[in-house]
Amino acid sequence: MTKLSVNINKIATIRNARGGDIPNVLETAMNCELFGAQGITVHPRPDGRHIRYSDVYAIRPKITTEFNIEGYPSESFLSLVKEVKPHQVTLVPDPPEALTSNAGWDTVKHADFLKRVISELKEQGIRTSIFVDTNEKNIIHAKETGTDRIELYTEPYAIMYPENQYEAVRPFVLAAEIAVSLGLGVNAGHDLSLENLTYFAKQVPGLLEVSIGHALISDALYYGLENTIQMYLGTLK
Ligand code: PXP
Predict the structure, then answer these.
(1) Least confident interval from 93-97, 100-104, 134-138, 191-195
(2) Is the Cβ atom of 7 under 6 angstroms away from ligand 1?
(3) Residue 107 near residue 138 (C-beta atoms within 8 A)
(4) Where do the structural domains in the chain lie, given as residue ranges?
(5) Residues 106-130 as b or e (16 or more Cβ within 10 Å = b)
(6) Is 129 in the pocket of ligand 1 (CB under 6 A)?
(7) Of 88, 126, 185, 218, whose Cβ has the fewest other Cβ atoms within 10 Å?
(8) How far is the CA of 67 from the centre of ligand 1 (A)?
(9) CA of 211 to the centre of ligand 1 (A)
C-alpha cells in the first residue's frame, strides 16, 4: 500500500502568522501519526517562513513513523539533515524565494552536484529521493545520481485531471514504469487531493509514498484532522 506522509508546513504558516505557538507544530505532527499517517514531511526554507530549523530538531526525536525532510541542498540544509538524520531527504531544486516547489531537477545538467550530495547523504545512512518531472531523460539520469527514489512532481497531473484523467495520468504511469524498471523507488507529491488521489494511486505502478500538505490541511478545516487523514488513507487502499 502507498504510504501517506503529511506535509505540515501549513500548520507552521498559521502559527507564524501570529508569532506565538498556536497551533503547535510538534503536537500536530504527533497527532498526524496518531490518526494514522505513515510519515511526516517538512520543508524548512532558509527564511523560516513556515517550518523552522528549530521545529525540525524538536520533531525528530518524537517521530515514530517516517520523517521526510525536503529542501534545496544548500550548505545549511545539508548540515541540518546530517545532524538530524531523518529517514528520507527529498532534494528539490527550487530557489530560496520560490513560493512552493514548481519544477523537478534537470538530472543531466545537475548530475555532478546531485551525485556528490546524494553520496554525502548516503554515507550518513539517509535514504534519498529527488524531485523530478515525468521526462524520460530526467528519470533515466536520476538513476545515475545514485538516488534511492524519485518523487514525481504531480502539479501537471492535478491541473489536467478535471478535464482528462487518462491523459493526465499517462506520463506518470510511463515515468513510474521506467523508474521501477531501473530499480528506483517512486514517491509523488504536489497538489494531490481527495479528488485526484484515488485515480493516481490506482494507475501509477509501484507508488511507495505520497506527500500531501496544502489540500489535506485545508480539508482538515472542514472535516477535522483525524477524519481527513482517515479519508486520505481510504483513497490509498
Ligand atoms: N513535494 C514537494 C517536493 C513539495 O515541495 C511540496 C510542497 O511543499 C509537496 C510535495 C506537497 O505539495 P502540496 O502542499 O501541494 O500537497
Answers:
(1) 93-97
(2) yes
(3) yes
(4) 3-236
(5) bbeebeeebeebbeebeeeebbbbb
(6) no
(7) 218
(8) 15
(9) 7
Residue type, 186: V
Q: Which residue has the higher pLDDT, 38 or 45?
A: 38
46 Cβ contact partners less than 8 Å away, ≥ 6 residues apart:
74, 76, 77, 96
Ligand 1 pocket residue status of 191, Cβ below 6 Å: yes
On whether the 3-236 domain is CATH 3.40.50.2300, my answer is: no
The C-alpha atoms of residue 125 and residue 123 are separated, in whole angstroms, by: 5
How far is residue 219's CA from residue 227's CA, in Å, rounded to a whole number?
Answer: 9
pLDDT tens-digit map of 179-225: 999 999 999 999 999 999 999 999 999 999 999 999 999 999 999 99
- Contact assessment for residue 87 and residue 68, using Cβ atoms and an 8 Å cutoff: yes
